[in-house]
Write a structure and sequence with these properties.
Helix 1 crosses helix 6 and helix 3 packs across helix 5. The protein contains six helices and five strands. The chain has a single domain, classed as Rossmann fold (3-Layer(aba) Sandwich). With 175 residues, it is α/β, with parallel strands linked by helices.
């Protein structure tokens, strides 16, 4: 799932006219998976502000910081479960809890399949609390030429869910 984070980072870089500030939290596992799947640690080269996974003093750990959107990309079923049950054991789950309580946009890009009943109920709970479940289910009607273009079909949808203007393929016409 690291390719989803990479494409999201790449697209966010191009949207600086639409975004005031970006804060990034990456778990140790996310860093390891990025290294394993993409054979690099390029996430270290993005000019975003990175926060430690246990930094509860990060601005978005409080609703007063006014961050308006949180992407969890990709979102594991474990993280989904902790969010659904209100367990804020790290900065990611605390930020999700804050976003939900402040009635802002929480977009979870889940990628596991198949789902069991626990996953489905957790998705229902987060949706009822105001979160948006955005499955990492790419579309093919744009005839993507490589993995990044295929991945972009998911990321473009997620960015649009956040209210951002995206120049991507649209059904029935070109971008």
């Amino acid at each position: 799932g690291a390719i989803y984070a990479k494409v999201l980072f790449d697209k966010l870089l191009l949207m600086n006219d639409q975004i005031e500030k970006i804060g990034i939290v990456m778990s140790d596992n996310a860093k390891d998976v990025w290294q394993y799947e993409l054979d690099n640690r390029d996430f270290e080269n993005y000019p975003f502000h990175y926060y430690d996974k246990n930094d509860f003093m990060a601005p978005f750990a409080s609703g007063s910081a006014k961050y308006d959107t949180l992407f969890i990309c990709p979102c594991s079923m474990g993280t989904l479960g902790r969010i659904a049950t209100g367990v804020s054991n790290d900065l990611t789950t605390r930020a999700a809890d804050v976003i939900l309580k402040e009635r802002r946009k929480l977009i979870l890009l889940i990628r596991e399949t198949p789902y069991n009943l626990i996953h489905i109920r957790n998705m229902e709970t987060v949706t009822m609390a105001g979160g948006i479940i955005c499955p990492a289910s790419p579309s093919y009607y744009s005839k993507p030429k490589n993995f990044e273009e295929l991945t972009a079909t998911v990321i473009d949808r997620a960015l649009e869910l956040a209210g951002l203007s995206v120049n991507g393929y649209r059904w029935g016409g070109e971008a």
